[in-house]
């Protein structure tokens, strides 16, 4: 067996640099998992609000076990996320780091996104088998998918609806104030519809999703707060022929996962009244791999896609387009459906997604 290190073509420096990079990869992967844990436990929120805490004081404020907390802090300190004063035995989250790691930082809270690493890892065994068989998955395989997706959507879409997203459609805010019928296809957790229903009481809002458990908590919240202009319905949109007529239909990060994306878009087109508008958010990558090489989010997006998007679509008998189906493909699908005038927008608050405006 030939020792490749003796091959004159073999670049020792390149090999060492690659090995060093993967040491960093292992450490960054570990940091991502522990960042997710810290987010869920409220540790970054407690650190952001209080500088110079001992582990005992932080444990009391966050309501966690101090022994486990010390191990977590070890990760954060050696990763350069948290600073440590050995004399005072105290820990501080620099404000520049807190600006991207605590709940008050939304929509810039990257700790929210680290949760997708755990979601992807939860189906590793199932996906290993699917790599061999080509079969798909159903949502029941995923640990916390709806919860994490709802939180991610809350800061990228819901929190920016009024300020950034609605204004890309001229006159839409005024129409919502006057009163129109709105539907969200593939509404997931339903937080977007809840926010709009609160902000625009004269309009009527409908959320449709395959999984009732996805929007159950939001539906209960709306009922508890007496919000009467919002309703949710569990519905398989891939087989529905008609769901009513609307002035505005939205779809946030939903189309590429469908069993029949073309049929899904055709249903949306049929559901819009004349003069209505379709507003779609979806991953803003390219279908051409070479164009995604410089995208700083591409490895994460391809990972989430590999472990969720094609398997969910294939599991429903769909084509498995994947999250990186591309802006080019999305625009082609919209045009083929009958949306003859499509505008594609990139918004400063959201570096991951593209926003499409398609009137009928």
UniProtKB/TrEMBL annotation:
What are the S-adenosylmethionine-dependent methyltransferase Rv2258c-like winged HTH domain coordinates in residue numbering? 29-103
Query: Top enzyme class of this protein?
Result: transferase
Give the E.C. number(s).
Answer: 2.1.1.144
Q: Which CDD domains match?
A: AdoMet_MTases
Keyword Nucleotide-binding in record: no
- Residue ranges of domain Methyltransferase in the record: 177-291
Which Pfam families has this protein been placed in? Methyltransf_31, WHD_Rv2258c
User: InterPro entries annotated for this entry?
Assistant: Methyltranfer_dom, SAM-binding_MTase, SAM-dependent_MTases_sf, WH-like_DNA-bd_sf, WH_DNA-bd_sf, WHD_Rv2258c
- Identify this protein by name: Trans-aconitate 2-methyltransferase
The molecular function GO annotations come to: trans-aconitate 2-methyltransferase activity
The family database entries (PANTHER family) matched by this protein are listed as: METHYLTRANSFERASE TYPE 11, S-ADENOSYLMETHIONINE-DEPENDENT METHYLTRANSFERASE RV2258C
Q: What is the primary gene name for this protein?
A: tam_3
Keywords, alphabetical: Methyltransferase, Transferase
The answer to keyword Hydrolase applying to this record is: no
Q: Which GO terms describe its biological process?
A: methylation
């Amino acid at each position: 067996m030939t020792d490749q290190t003796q091959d004159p073509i073999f670049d020792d420096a390149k090999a060492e640099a690659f090995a060093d990079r993967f040491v960093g990869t292992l450490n960054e992967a570990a940091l991502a998992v522990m960042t997710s844990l810290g987010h869920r436990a409220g540790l970054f929120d407690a650190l952001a609000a209080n500088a110079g805490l001992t582990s005992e004081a932080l444990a009391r404020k966050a309501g966690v076990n101090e022994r486990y907390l010390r191990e977590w802090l070890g990760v954060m300190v050696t990763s350069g996320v948290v600073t440590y004063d050995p004399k005072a035995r105290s820990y501080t989250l620099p404000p520049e780091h807190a600006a991207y790691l605590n709940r008050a930082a939304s929509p810039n809270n990257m700790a929210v996104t680290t949760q997708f690493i755990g979601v992807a890892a939860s189906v590793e065994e199932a996906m290993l088998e699917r790599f061999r068989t080509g079969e798909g998955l159903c949502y029941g395989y995923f640990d916390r998918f709806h919860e994490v997706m709802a939180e991610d959507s809350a800061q990228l879409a819901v929190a920016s609806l009024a300020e950034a997203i609605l204004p890309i459609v001229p006159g839409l805010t005024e129409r919502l104030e006057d009163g129109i019928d709105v539907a969200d296809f593939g509404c997931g957790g339903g937080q977007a519809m809840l926010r709009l229903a609160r902000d625009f009481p004269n309009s009527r809002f409908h959320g449709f999703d395959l999984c009732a458990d996805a929007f159950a908590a939001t539906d209960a919240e709306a009922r508890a707060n007496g919000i009467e202009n919002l309703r949710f319905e569990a519905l398989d949109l891939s087989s529905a022929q008609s769901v009513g007529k609307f002035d505005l239909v939205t779809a946030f990060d939903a189309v590429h996962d469908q069993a029949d994306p073309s049929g899904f878009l055709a249903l949306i087109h049929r559901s819009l009244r004349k003069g209505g508008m379709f507003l779609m958010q979806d991953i803003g990558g390219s279908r051409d791999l070479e164009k995604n090489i410089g995208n700083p989010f591409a490895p994460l997006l391809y990972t989430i896609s590999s472990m969720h998007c094609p398997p969910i679509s294939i599991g429903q008998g769909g084509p498995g387009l994947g999250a990186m189906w591309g802006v080019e493909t999305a625009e082609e699908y919209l045009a083929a459906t009958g949306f003859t005038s499509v505008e594609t927008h990139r918004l400063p608050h959201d570096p991951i997604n593209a926003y499409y405006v398609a009137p009928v």
